[in-house]
Amino acid sequence: MKRFVSSLFGQVVAALILGVIVGVVWPGFAVTLKPLGDAFIKLIKMAIAPLVFGVVVHGIVGAGDLRKVGRVGLKSLIYFEGVTTIALVLGLVLAYVAAPGHGMNVDVASLDAKAIAGYTDKVGQVTGTVDFLMKLVPTTFVDAFAKGDILQVLILAILFGSGLALLGERGKPLADSLERITEVLFKVIGFIVKLAPLGVLGAVAFTVGKYGVGSLAQLGKLVALFYVGVAIFVLVVLGGIMRMAGFSIVKLLAYLREELTVVAGTASSDSVLPQVMRKLERLGIKDSTVGLVIPTGYSFNLDAFSLYLTLATVFIAQATNTELSFGHLMLILGIALLTSKGAHGVPGSAIVVLAATLSAVPEIPVIGLVLVLSVDWFIGIARALGNLIGNCVATVVIAAWEGDIDRAQAHRVLNGEVTTDTAEILDAPVAQPRIA
User: Fold this and answer.
1) What's the pLDDT score for residue 55?
2) How would you write the chain as a 3-class SS string?
């Protein structure tokens, strides 16, 4: 019991429970605690861009073979598209089997369009393949870091790392310096992570205090169905994929329990990105693979987000009595495959991308977005959890595919034979895994 209380996991769980109690008993005071959650996420995000840059550059230089780096990147994209498609189809199937919107009979004319004006104005940020590809290219080298755009930073890191690798021995001093800077950033993250309980307390208290648990009542069926869908996707789809790779999804979830608890409290997977990268390295995965798959997955492998897109789209159609043909469903599926890629980094991304998806199907009234606004934060918890788990599984699977994981080390860690406490892992240097 003492070990549980002193661990980061125990402290975060206690903060989560306390946040719910404060939100219910003192809602007015709970709302004022919002800055605690916001500040914690901002502190983490502050270090993400330079950390990703350092990890990826170091990984590419350490890999030595640029063709291998390209191969890992290509395999990642193929995997992402395949798994994302499964998630989109699962969302459609669940919506039609459970029909969460049937019987609501919402009068579109009675909905307040002003509530979604701020989101629909941003639709242009996520639509159009050409625009999306153009946004991958930063205006300047510094601009990508200033905006904290992970994909832009990743592209810069790949180019810089490739150039540095081609310098050979002449580039070694700079590569060593970047490695030391990255280690310092991990230490900084270690300091910030200790504030996670405060961040979770603030975020949970604010949400419960402002919206109340009762706000789930009207749309409870949609929220419950989405949570069930994410659970099915994680345990059945991702669990099956992990089993084929020779590992257990349940043991992986137990290993990441601290990070998952923080994500559940903050509804943001960004809040644990650095910790997750370090823990996957500790699992025995080569740092170059971790550095490529995780940052890319944050924009290209949004599994739970994709599931929500199709589920919510059909839900709005059902609630507004809009008939959808098989052709409409295929159109929704195709559009969602594109719009989901532009989600990360857009404010209010879930609602914005959902608006972009609905805009491509004129039969469904975009104003139907008003129906899901009140529960978006609660749904966002499962979205963030599902996305994070999906990216961790992707990293393990692609590493196994490439032979970039020390299986003996991975099984020792997953079986609990070595420390799995996040704070200790961030404080300790990570030895390079032995690759068979």
Assistant:
1) 78
2) CHHHHHCHHHHHHHHHHHHHHHHHHCHHHHHCCHHHHHHHHHHHHHHHHHHHHHHHHHHHHHHCCHHHHHHHHHHHHHHHHHHHHHHHHHHHHHHHHHCCCCCCCCCHHHCCHHHHHHHHCCHHHCCCHHHHHHHCCCCCHHHHHHHCCHHHHHHHHHHHHHHHHHCHHHHHHHHHHHHHHHHHHHHHHHHHHCCHHHHHHHHHHHHHHHHCHHHHCCCHHHHHHHHHHHHHHHHHHHHHHHHHHCCCHHHHHHHCHHHHHHHHHHCCCHHHHHHHHHHHHHCCECHHHHHHHHHHHHHHCCHHHHHHHHHHHHHHHHHCCCCCCHHHHHHHHHHHHHHHHHCCCCCCHHHHHHHHHHHCCCCCCHHHHHHHHCCHHHHHHHHHHHHHHHHHHHHHHHHHHHCCECHHHHHHHHCCCCCCCHHHHHHCCCCCCCCC
Map out the domains of the chain as residue ranges.
2-427
CA-to-CA distance for 125 and 147, rounded, in angstroms?
15
Report the alpha-carbon distance of residue 288 to residue 69 in Å, rounded. Answer: 8
In the chain the first and final C-alpha atoms are separated, in Å, by: 39
Burial of 198-222, coded b for 16+ CB within 10 Å and e otherwise, reads bbbbbbbbbbbbebeeebbeebebb
Question: Side chain identity at 97, as an amino acid letter?
Answer: V
Average pLDDT per block of 10 residues along the chain, 436 residues long: 66 82 85 84 80 80 72 86 91 88 67 53 52 72 79 83 83 84 82 81 79 62 91 95 94 91 81 85 87 81 88 86 79 72 55 72 76 77 91 93 90 81 59 42
Which architecture does CATH list for 2-427?
Orthogonal Bundle (1.10)
Cα separation, 374 vs 352, whole angstroms: 15
Per-residue confidence (pLDDT) for residue 327, from 0 to 100: 80
pLDDT of residue 299: 74
Are residues 301 and 398 in contact, defined by beta-carbon separation less than 8 angstroms? no
What pLDDT, on a 0 to 100 scale, did the predictor assign at position 163?
A: 86
* 301 vs 340: CA distance, rounded Å: 9
Question: How many C-beta neighbours within 10 Å does residue 348 have?
Answer: 15
Tell me the two tokens of residue 328: 């409409």
